[in-house]
Amino acid sequence: MTALPDPARSRAVLIGTASYRHLPQLPAVEANVLDLAAELCDATVWGLPVQNCAVVTDPLSPHTILDPVYRAGEEATDTLLVYFSGHGMRDADSDDLYLALGDTREHLGYTAVAYQHLRAALRSARARRKIVVLDCCFSGRAARALAGEEVLAAQAAVDGAYVLTASPRDRIALAPDGERYTAFTGELLAVLRGGIQNGPELIDLDTLYRVMEERLRAKNRPTPQRSQENGVGRLPVARNKARASRHAPAGPVLAADVRAAIVATGLALARLLRTEGNARDALAVLRLALQEQQTAEVYGDLLAVQLELSELLAETGQVREAVEVLELAFQRVHKVYGPEAVLVCRRLADLLQESGNHLQACEVLKHALDISERGGRD
Fold first, then answer.
1. How far apart are CA 320 and CA 324, in angstroms?
2. Cβ neighbours of residue 363 under 8 Å, at least 6 residues apart?
3. For the chain, what is the mean pLDDT?
């Protein structure tokens, strides 16, 4: 395979549960999902249209996870990518894998989403190729179920499926304290953002797996697992940013692609500056990236830039500007995104309450509830 999946005929569903009532919190999951969405929509990585990338944060019911997957499965004819980040559980009786929801209780599979239901959604999808990425404890059981023993393979066959998981089937995944991302997704994002030195121009799934395994093993962290059918491991999934295509014939460069690349670079630079404690320069870069993104009217990284900027503004005491940024985010996000609008509302309501605007905060939260209810009826 010599080309990336057609972005117009492909879909991605990114699901992340960071907040739990009965299980340990996973704050890194929120950054996992939002930043991975930004990378997939980045024209220098894949270029998936924003409307083709559904983001589901902190789901509380099975249909909140499964409905977007079924919808994406009906729309995608090329490639369907489904990503989950959060707690994984083993059922006490069957030992099957379950994906935890916000209200999930330990060892009670009926309070979570059975992985077999996600498999059913994948089996019904029209897409020729399906990719499943699981960043959760015991996620290796999903890989075993798609490629292992004859009985399991017969029960869980998914034509053209590739499963990439964060850990072997009997080990826990890792969410390092103080790090922005979980270990697995952090390494995944590092490959997408930095590429692979001396690697191919297009990074396929098997290459991605091998590089992530080497890097995680070198850091003494849980190593990923994989399973595939029909040779889909050769499918390219990202452009290699470390590869200089000096000898490739020149092609048309669109203004939108240039602007998208500028914004993606600015976002990455701002995050680096922020990590180094340079908030002043990070703010300047993010403001420029936001201005460039809005001028370009290409919104692949817009939400990521706005969320990053508002968070940094709030941290530096500039709450009013942070509120303004989130209000602008909501004006656009509710037209393009579904569950992301709830996340923006939640962030906005927190800042409004912090600044003493309690009534407005309540109105924003009510709007978030209305969005959730409408999504549940779709």
1. 6
2. none
3. 79
Residue count of the chain: 378
**pLDDT above 90 as % of the chain:** 26
pLDDT at 297 over 70: no
Q: The tokens 């797996």 sit on which residue?
A: 209
Reduced to 3 states, what is the DSSP secondary structure of residue 251? coil
Q: Which of 177, 172, 182, 195 minimizes the C-alpha distance to 33?
A: 182
What is the reported pLDDT for 334?
A: 54
d(CA 64, CA 375): 8
Per the DSSP assignment, residues forming a β-bridge with 47 are none
Could you tell me the CA-to-CA distances from 229 to 88, 141, 144 in Å, in that order? Answer: 24, 16, 12
What would the two tokens of residue 378 be?
A: 């779709």
Give the Cα-Cα-Cα angle 80, 84, 86 (nearest 5 degrees): 180
CB atoms within 10 A of CB 57: 20
| Alpha carbon distances (Å) from 312 to 30, 49, 214, 317, 343 | 16, 27, 33, 9, 17
Q: Report the 10 Å Cβ neighbour count for 355.
A: 15
CA angle 296, 268, 258 (to 5 degrees): 30
DSSP annotation of 301 reads T
pLDDT above 80: residue 260: no
Q: Which of 180, 178, 207, 177 is nearest to 191 (CA)?
A: 207
Is the entire prediction scored with pTM above 0.85?
no
Termini Cα distance of the chain: 36
Instruction: For the beta carbon of residue 276, count every other beta carbon within 10 angstroms.
Output: 10
| Rg, Å, the chain Cα set | 20
Pick the most confident of 113-122, 152-161, 172-181. Answer: 113-122
- State what percent of residues in the chain have pLDDT above 70: 75
What pLDDT was estimated at residue 332?
Answer: 63
pLDDT at 316: 87
- Cα 135 from Cα 230, distance rounded (Å): 23
For residue 280, give Cα distances in angstroms to 237, 285, 291, 305: 35, 9, 17, 16
Structure tokens at 42: 């980045």
Which one has a higher pLDDT value, 26 or 377? 26
